[in-house]
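RECORD TYPE: inverse folding
INPUT: structure tokens
STRUCTURE:
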């Protein structure tokens, strides 16, 4: 698998020459880590500090697909003005690219569970007709009861087939995610 970083975009996005797979979720849910795990190399910058990803980052996979790492929503160590700027950028991204998005991976932390902003994101995907899969992340850090609780929450919104359990640290879920990306 060959992955090339195309750049960080704030205003204009790359031409919609390839279908897009976008990684979406709350700040610090593991979007960049998951992207790195899926492609097998550290192409996306990772940080323990919420809000590290501040632009829409595009990666070209095998010259046939864009992988898109977007800023997280919710808590981040930035001011309200910066958060509002991100919100507008994300809204513009989804409105402009909705027809180009092949799949959105909505990442939900196994310990934190479904939060109100996650519910809003699901509603947004449904409104815009964007296909999505919920990826329950950081299962290596969660107890079985926390995972079960989060699974139960997620199943209220999506069927069993639209859920992947993952751990970027342990490589869990990679096969299922690659299958959804490449097919």
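DESIGNED SEQUENCE:
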């Amino acid at each position: 698998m060959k992955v090339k970083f195309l750049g960080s975009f704030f205003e204009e996005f790359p031409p919609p020459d390839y279908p897009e797979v976008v990684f979406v979720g709350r700040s610090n849910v593991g979007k960049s880590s998951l992207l790195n795990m899926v492609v097998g190399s550290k192409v996306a910058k990772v940080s323990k500090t919420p809000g590290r990803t501040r632009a829409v980052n595009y990666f070209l996979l095998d010259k046939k697909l864009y992988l898109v790492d977007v800023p997280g929503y919710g808590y981040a160590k930035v001011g309200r003005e910066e958060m509002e700027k991100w919100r507008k950028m994300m809204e513009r991204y989804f409105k402009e690219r909705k027809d180009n998005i092949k799949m959105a991976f909505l990442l939900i932390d196994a310990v934190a569970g479904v939060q109100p902003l996650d519910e809003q994101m699901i509603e947004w995907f449904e409104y815009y007709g964007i296909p999505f899969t919920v990826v329950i992340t950081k299962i290596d850090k969660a107890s079985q009861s926390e995972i079960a609780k989060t699974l139960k929450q997620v199943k209220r919104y999506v069927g069993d087939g639209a859920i992947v359990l993952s751990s970027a640290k342990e490589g869990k879920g990679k096969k299922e995610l690659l299958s959804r990306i490449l097919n």
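NOTES: Residues 3-182 form a domain with the Rossmann fold fold (CATH 3.40.50.300).
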